[in-house]
Amino acid sequence: MATMADVARSAGVSVATVSHVLNGTRPVSPGTRRAVLDAVDELGYTPNTLARSLVTARTRSIGLAVSAVSNPYFTEILQGVETAALESGYGLLLADPHDDPLHERKVAQLLHERRVDGMIVAPSARPGELVDYLGRHAVPTVFLDRLIDPTGPGGAPDTAAAATPFFDQVCAESAAPTARLVAHLAGLGHRRVGLIAGLPGLSTTRERITGYLDGLAAAGLAYDDRLVVSGNSESAGAERATAALLALPDPPTALVTANNAMTLGALRALRRRGRSVPGDIALCCFDDFPWADLFSPRLTAVAQPSRELGARAVRLLLERLAEPDRPSRTVRLPCAFVHRASCGCPEEPERPAAAAPAASSVLSEIPPEPPSEKGTAS
């Protein structure tokens, strides 16, 4: 089996230089780096990860804790995380916290005991114990998709979050895209627009409700609290919520669903009650998914940059590992409005396959400005 010394002899460099190339511990000229990597390939050298971790106190592994990994949204995030991690020479340990506050804390401890260099976590609606554990053990962490609010109930500072400057966060915009959906439906003449909201306590739920209210205000529509029902971010909950909305004396004529699982539940409720989309009720959804344009009618949706969210989370974590004391950051990425026909707009004729864009008739960013990176007390 080839050793690091063999690689050094083949490349004509020192063992220290080989170590710097493989571990990224010091800049090396492109030519030297190429010679070392060519020697590694030629000799089939495999670094001893265990031995290296004992020397560097790094395992070059990342812990990823996200719930509902079968959800297409989180599946694409996982692909973004995995690709970016592997490109940077990091392995991935995956765990599902099941959106359970107690279980997610246990998952964090399990990953920490496996000596991961840092974690990427989609926190639950009540992440207090998780934040406390990560802060107490100074685990470099990126919160993904759902943000940790630096204030507690009533706006009081959350001391656990405020005391953990090594937490970074990355998510997609939520409020403006939701407002865009409501405004679009209002522009089509709808005056009673219902919202199937997500699990209470999640930042995504709060922001999408805020966007819904902003959309109503911009369209000059009155707010009716009976039109906002929680679907708990799951299909069954959304089915029940949709049934409740349809049972109102004056039910909504249009519906916004706040994630893809709830879109499926809403569609199931509408079908069971013989309601057609968009003939009886218009529908727009937050979260696009691979088969959204296979429904009849095709679903008008907000598409989140799922893979880029995962990749950006890895980059934030690696930057944190390289500079442990830098200020924490919250990064927000723009979404896209994918205009199809479930909103009630005319279905465009199918284009020839070679000329057709990927599953959408109109695609525009929400909001138009580039991604922002803002300091935050995580």
Describe it.
With 378 residues, this protein is an alpha/beta fold. It contains 13 helices and 14 strands. Strands 2-1-3-4-5-11-14 form a seven-stranded mixed beta sheet, sandwiched between helices. Strands 7-6-8-9-10-12-13 form a seven-stranded mixed beta sheet, sandwiched between helices. Helix 8 links the parallel strand 4 and strand 5. Helix 5 crosses helix 13. The longest helix is centred in the middle third of the chain and has 17 residues. The protein is elongated, with a radius of gyration of 24 Å.
Helix/strand layout:
Elements: H1 4-11, H2 15-23, H3 30-43, H4 49-56, E1 61-65, H5 72-87, E2 91-95, H6 101-113, E3 118-121, H7 128-136, E4 141-144, H8 159-162, E5 167-172, H9 175-187, E6 193-197, H10 203-219, E7 228-230, H11 235-246, E8 254-257, H12 260-272, E9 282-286, E10 300-303, H13 306-322, E11 329-333, E12 335-339, E13 362-366, E14 372-375
Helix pairs in contact: 1-2, 1-3, 5-13, 6-7, 9-10, 11-12
Structure in a nutshell:
40% of the residues lie in helices and 17% in strands.
Specify the helix fraction band: 40-55%
Order of helices and strands: HHHHEHEHEHEHEHEHEHEHEEHEEEE
The mean pLDDT is 85
DSSP strand count: 14
Distance between the terminal alpha carbons, to the nearest Å? 46 Å
Give the amount of beta strand, in percent.
15-25%
Q: What is the overall shape?
A: elongated
Please state the oligomeric state of the protein chains shown.
single chain
